Amino acid sequence: MNISIASYAFHGLLQRGMIDLFGYLEACRYRYQLHTADIWNGMFVSTDDDYLAKVKEALRLRELELVNLCVDGAHILEDDLNLREQNYLNALAYLHAAGVLGAKTIRIDAGGQGDTFTNEQFDLVVRRYREFAQRAYDNGYKVGPENHWGPEVVPENMKRICEAVDHPGFGMLLHFRGNAGDRLMAPWAMHTHISWDIAEKSLESSLTMLRDAGYTGCWGVEHHSGEQEYTRTAIQLERVRAVLEGR
């Protein structure tokens, strides 16, 4: 079954120095019996080729497929032009990493503040995503934003971006909210984040909706509390498995 655990689920352990990227991969394969990895770049210590080679080998040894690379610090919009340029360079570095590691999808956010884009901001977002999407398409994966902060939270904004980019190498990471906005964005979903709240309140309806929309990607579970992460993540994972298996 195509389910994954976002490595952000263990950010509390990471902050306490009790897990690293390789420990996360070990947990995916042997604690949770998965064949997928779903890496948040907060666990990366570098994007140089020597480090990427080690990560690639770790994935291979555990027979794990990298279904998503979730990237912070590479969003497109920043008022400070120097920071915007640095984020662009970060995005290029992680797009390279996605290709090296055989990722299926990579999340790079649009950025911005409030709940709207100016025309100038929107044009830049679309231009950058078209650039990223072509690179992704040429290397066998998809790239796009997640509806989890800034103007991306507004479903209509995400739909507008998706329609404007209109590229086979582009998609979006659907962070379920359990509302009508999920259905609006569903046609472009390339990956998911299923939170504890969704697992408790609207799991079956959310997964059924996305399945009915034709989704065939991986079902990504993400825990957020920073506490009892091994156990709580296991509970979320089992709930998702149960729904997908019709139990």
Brief digest:
The protein has 247 residues and is of the alpha/beta class.
What is the strand and helix layout of this fold?
Layout: E1 3-5, H1 11-15, H2 21-31, E2 36-40, H3 49-61, E3 65-71, H4 81-101, E4 105-108, H5 119-138, E5 142-144, H6 155-165, E6 172-175, H7 180-185, E7 189-193, H8 196-201, H9 203-212, E8 219-221, H10 229-244
Parallel strand pairs: 1-8, 2-3, 3-4, 4-5, 6-7
What does this structure look like?
By secondary structure, this protein is an alpha/beta fold. The protein is built from ten helices and eight strands. Strands 2-3-4-5 form a four-stranded parallel sheet. Strands 1-8 form a two-stranded parallel sheet. The protein has a two-stranded parallel sheet with strand order 6-7. Strand 2 (36-40), helix 3 (49-61) and strand 3 (65-71) form a beta-alpha-beta unit. The longest helix has 21 residues, at 81-101. It is globular. The two termini are 14 Å apart. The model has no long low-confidence stretch (mean pLDDT 97).
In helices, the fraction of residues equals: 40-55%
Strand order of the largest sheet: 2-3-4-5
Major sheet description: 4 strands, parallel
Structural class: alpha/beta
Mean pLDDT across every amino acid position: 97
Tell me, briefly, the overall form.
Answer: globular
The string of secondary-structure elements, in order, is EHHEHEHEHEHEHEHHEH
Spans of 5+ residues with little confidence (pLDDT < 50)?
A: none
Backbone CA Rg: 17 Å
Fraction of residues in β-strands:
5-15%
Distance between the termini: 14 Å
> How many β-strands, per DSSP?
8
